[in-house]
Design brief:
The protein is an alpha+beta fold. It has helices spanning 36-40, 48-62, 80-96, 115-123, 133-138, 160-167, 189-196, 206-209, 227-241, and strands at residues 2-5, 11-13, 22-27, 67-69, 99-103, 143-146, 152-155, 256-257, 285-289, 292-298, 314-318, 334-341, 347-351, 358-359, 372-377. Helices cover 23% and strands 18% of the residues. It is elongated, with a radius of gyration of 24 Å.
C-alpha cells in the first residue's frame, strides 16, 4: 500500500503488518486532480486538486496522523496491474484506516439557514450518488464529514438518520450506537444490490467493480467489456461463494431475460428483501454451467407437467426470499420467479420479469430431500434461442 507523508508530501510503500496508522480521504473527483506522477515528481500545479490534498494533509497532522491515503495520487493509474490490485483492495484499505474523512465540496454549511436546511444540503450532496462512495461509507470504522470549507459536520453515527434516508441503507449498517455496526455481509445480496441501484460511475464497468468489497469477492478488471458483462461476471462470482437466492429477486420491464440481472437498477425495490427461514436454509441448489444456471428443485416443489411441457410453457419457481412491510413488520409471503421453457432440451429462461409472484409457504428445509429435478436457466439474453 502506497501512503503519502502528510508533512513531507513524499510517498512510501508498506506491506501488510508494516502499514502504519493512516487517515483516508473520500471525495468526489473534480477539476485538475493530482496524479501519482505529478505528486511523485513534485510537479503538481496549483489548483483545486492540490489544494484539497494539502488541506487534507493539514487536517491529518492536526489529528496527529503522519500518513494519509488519497485515491487520486496514491495509485499509479498508468499501471493496469496496480490499478486492479488497488480496486480489489479498496474496501480493506478503507476498513483498516484509523478514520475516513469525507470532503463534501458541494456542501457550504455557512449558507444554511438552520439545522434542517443544513441537513437538506447534506443529503443533496452528489457524494451520495456515486458508486465508489458506497464502500467508502460502509467500510470505515470511523467516518467524519467535512463541508467545502473543511468545517466538520459530524460523524456517521451522529448523521446516521439522514444518511439512511438518503441512501436507503438500514441504519444499523451505518451507525455503531452502543456496539459495532451490523456487518455489511449480514444484508442479503438483493438488499446490498439495492444500495447501488441508483448510483452512477464515470466508467460504465465501475458500477460492478465498485461492489467487489461490498460482496467480498475478487475478480480481474476488464475495462472495455461494458457494464452489462461486468455486472454479470460479478454475480457469477457471488454465486460461486454464496447460496443466497435473493440474487434472483430482481424485476425489470423485460418480457423474457436471462437469469442474472443486467443492471443494478433492477434491484431498486429489493432493499427490504430477506431470506425466508433459518440461517443457512436453502430451497434450491444452483450453480453455473456452460448450459446456464443449473437448478435442482426438490420433488415436492416440482410440477409433473413441467417434465413434458412444450416450449413456451411458463411455471413458477420458489426462491428463498420474502419482504418486509413498513415499520419492520414481516410479510408472511414466500416469493418466486417465473420461468419459460425455451426448447425440449430442458433449457429455460426468466419470464414476466416485472413479477416476483407469491407462492405457497414451505417451512421445512429441503437439503436431503430426493429426488431432485435439474433444469438449466440461461444466464443471459434468451433471444438467440
Amino acid at each position: 500500500m502506497r501512503l503519502l507523508h502528510a508533512e513531507r508530501l513524499e510517498f512510501d510503500d508498506f506491506f501488510d503488518t508494516q502499514i502504519p496508522p493512516y487517515l483516508i480521504l473520500s471525495h468526489r473527483w473534480g477539476e485538475r486532480e493530482v496524479s501519482y506522477q505529478q505528486m511523485h515528481k513534485k510537479r503538481a500545479a496549483e489548483g483545486p486538486g492540490l489544494t484539497k490534498i494539502l488541506k487534507f494533509c493539514r487536517l491529518a497532522l492536526e489529528k496527529r496522523y503522519t500518513w494519509v491515503w488519497v485515491d487520486t495520487c496514491c495509485i499509479d493509474k498508468k499501471s493496469s496491474a496496480e490499478l486492479s490490485e488497488a480496486i480489489n483492495s479498496m474496501f480493506k484499505w478503507y476498513q483498516s484506516a484509523e478514520e475516513c474523512i469525507v470532503y463534501l465540496s458541494d456542501v457550504a454549511s455557512g449558507e444554511a439557514e438552520g439545522y434542517e436546511d443544513l441537513k437538506a444540503k447534506f443529503s443533496a450532496s452528489s457524494w451520495f450518488t456515486r458508486g465508489w462512495t458506497l464502500q467508502e461509507l460502509l467500510a470505515p470504522k470511523q467516518l467524519t464529514f467535512y463541508d467545502s470549507d473543511w468545517k466538520e459536520l459530524g460523524d456517521k453515527d451522529l448523521l446516521s438518520d439522514a444518511i439512511s434516508v438518503t441512501t436507503g441503507i438500514n441504519e444499523h449498517f451505518i451507525t455503531r450506537g452502543a456496539s459495532p455496526p451490523v456487518p455489511v455481509g449480514a444484508a442479503t445480496v438483493a438488499a446490498r444490490m439495492s444500495w447501488v441501484a441508483k448510483r452512477k460511475t464515470s466508467r460504465s464497468e465501475d458500477i460492478a467493480y465498485c461492489l467487489l468489497g461490498i460482496f467480498d469477492v475478487n475478480m480481474p478488471l476488464l475495462y472495455g467489456e461494458g457494464a452489462q458483462k461486468a455486472f454479470i461476471r460479478l454475480q457469477t462470482e457471488i454465486i460461486n461463494r454464496s447460496d443466497d437466492e435473493t440474487i434472483f429477486a430482481w424485476t425489470s420491464n423485460q418480457h423474457r431475460s436471462g437469469m442474472l440481472a443486467t443492471d443494478p437498477s433492477f434491484f431498486a425495490d429489493s432493499k427490504e428483501m430477506v431470506k425466508y427461514g433459518a440461517i443457512g436454509q436453502t430451497y434450491l441448489r444452483f450453480w453455473m454451467t456452460n448450459k446456464g444456471l443449473a437448478f435442482q428443485i426438490p420433488d415436492s416443489e416440482w410440477s409433473a407437467s413441467m417434465d413434458h411441457s412444450p416450449p413456451g410453457s411458463i411455471f413458477n419457481i420458489r426462491i428463498n426470499s420474502r419482504v418486509y412491510q413498513d415499520q419492520g413488520m414481516q410479510k408472511d409471503v414466500t416469493l418466486g420467479i417465473r420461468v419459460q421453457r425455451i426448447n425440449t432440451r430442458n433449457t429455460w429462461c426468466r419470464a414476466d420479469c416485472h413479477l416476483l409472484p407469491t407462492v405457497r409457504k414451505r417451512y421445512a428445509s429441503f437439503p436431503d430431500e430426493k429426488p431432485l429435478h435439474t433444469i438449466y436457466i440461461l444466464q443471459s439474453d434468451p433471444e438467440s434461442y
